[in-house]
Design goal:
The complex is a heterodimer of chains A (117) and B (112). Chain A has 117 residues and is an all-beta fold. Chain A has no helices and 11 strands. In chain B, a hairpin with a 6-residue loop joins strand 9 and strand 10. The chains are: A mainly beta (117), B mainly beta (112).
């Protein structure tokens, strides 16, 4: 139980284009989803927190107009990287929190590797 | 602001050894602490979660302890195997919107 999926698992795009990454909770309803970014050989950094039906809360230094987050349903959140540049190349991981497990337990997706050429 | 540090940053041990990974955090007001494993290029695998009221958790060859007052946790791996080679991350949940703050990670290599 408590499975979180991400799609795509990897994507290559050209500089200036936009890329959408999906995060789905497959067997539970996720009231809150989190988006993280991980650069090579570094740890995970929280980008934003999204609650179903409301605007995302972004961490300091994360451009909300560049990283658009939508959490339209209790099982789906999307992260759109707009006008992507090579420096946006990274590993993006989502997590979900909801009715499964303890109130403060997050379940992680497998990640999406984005490469911007 | 919560800061999480892991020591050592990298560790290489021969197969069969017992080892300890350390995690320290600056703000002791946490809900829980979690240990993860991450293989190269992959996502996170949750290993153990310790609630703030608990002192330790065990799963197979893994044992995690938590000393909240001193801001420390350890992950003990018994009888290490080559398959244990991975990066180990600890993360603390400080309760502010259930945000997780991750440590810097320990890259473990278990050699034959």
């Amino acid at each position: 139980g408590a499975v979180v999926s991400q799609h795509p698992s990897w994507v290559i795009c050209k500089s200036g284009t936009s890329v959408k990454i999906e995060c789905r909770s497959l067997d539970f309803q996720a009231t809150t989803m989190f988006w993280y970014r991980q650069f090579p050989k570094q740890s995970l950094m929280l980008m934003a927190t999204s609650n179903e039906g409301s605007k995302a809360t972004y961490e300091q230094g994360v451009e909300k107009d560049k990283f658009l987050i939508n959490h339209a349903s209790l099982t789906l959140s999307t992260l759109t990287v707009t006008s992507a540049h090579p420096e946006d190349s990274s590993f993006y991981i989502c997590s979900a929190r909801g009715e499964r497990g303890s109130l403060h337990e997050q379940y992680f997706g497998p990640g999406t590797r984005l490469t911007v050429t | 602001k919560q800061e999480v540090t892991q020591i050592p940053a990298a560790l290489s041990v021969p197969e069969g050894e017992n080892l300890v990974l350390n995690c320290s955090f600056t703000d002791s007001a946490i809900y829980n602490l979690q240990w993860f494993r991450q293989d190269p290029g992959k996502g996170l695998t949750s290993l153990l979660l310790i609630q703030s009221s608990q002192r330790e958790q065990t799963s197979g060859r893994l044992n995690a302890s938590l000393d909240k007052s001193s801001g420390r946790s350890t992950l003990y791996i018994a009888a290490s195997q080559p398959g244990d080679s991975a990066t180990y991350l600890c993360a603390v949940n400080t309760g502010t919107a259930s945000k997780l703050t991750f440590g810097t990670g320990t890259r473990l290599q278990v050699t034959l």
